[in-house]
């Protein structure tokens, strides 16, 4: 037994002191090929310092061996020594047999730094030199998957499957294609692949994507089955609760949907989207107190979430809590890109509070966005008529009658205004 074999044997036995002695003896006595293999094994086992020491020793003896430089670059990346890794990789010339591999390692380095375009360039360069190499095709597909450029990733995964490679680096490519199709919004194609994955082999991510895909295809029963299984096996997978709630709502199982969202909130109480959707379901079961409670929780977590702001102010208006509406929305009216529904809610509230100057201001702000909505136009007509704004009233009446042409009362008002009888 060589000293390298003894060192690995001692590691396997958990005898670290004996490993260190055997490792030191290997450095002094084992031949270079045996040491190279030992370095590879130690790198795989996570003993980076020991692996690096061997490679550095071998590089001193064989300075022309670029494979060793690439191995040292790999170790440097694992140790977050990116500049050192680049130094090694830049020493590999284009005519070297290790050049393609150096490009792949460089691509990995740039991807860890989220320099995705540079990583893509390196992989495309490698692919041009070795177009049929599965490792390059897979690396490029995974990069595009990470970048969420799924339509670029799918053909590459399919290419590997056509080459007879259904799995690479423990990644099931059928799963990957299904998930990629789902994320690209091509749900029919997605389910064709995802259905091929045995339920016992599904990762939580794949089970979620499969359930979500069934939801998009309006197969609520399958969506509920898969997402419920995921909830039972991994309740911390918080992304499942909203789509599971949606599927239950579609099946008119509102009480179960609300319970599901409440379970999600028990897992993640800092997710404003969960509070918001739980409020939606509470509203569906006519529990306005719970609706308000959940919306306030969501607003406290993210005051900039305008969807929650609008839902809460809509509830206040519905409950005729006009001062609450004004107090709540006042902080938002100076924001850029404000949702026009806020103008409408403020206009309604100020009008009911008989603050007509402010009501006029916000009706005018809201008007351009709601000229095709009868619920806005009709109260606005009455407001502007009472405010003595004849031309504005006529304009709003004309817009209203385009939407509701058979409203005889409003038609008569328009006729009177146009005849100057008002």
From TrEMBL:
Keyword Protease among UniProt keywords: no
Domain of life: Bacteria
UniProt repeat feature TPR, residue ranges: 238-271, 340-373
Signal peptide region: none
InterPro entries assigned: CellSynth/LPSAsmb/PSIAsmb, TPR-like_helical_dom_sf, TPR_rpt
Keywords: Repeat, TPR repeat
SUPFAM superfamilies, A to Z: TPR-like
Name of the featured protein: Uncharacterized protein
Organism encoding this protein: Secundilactobacillus paracollinoides
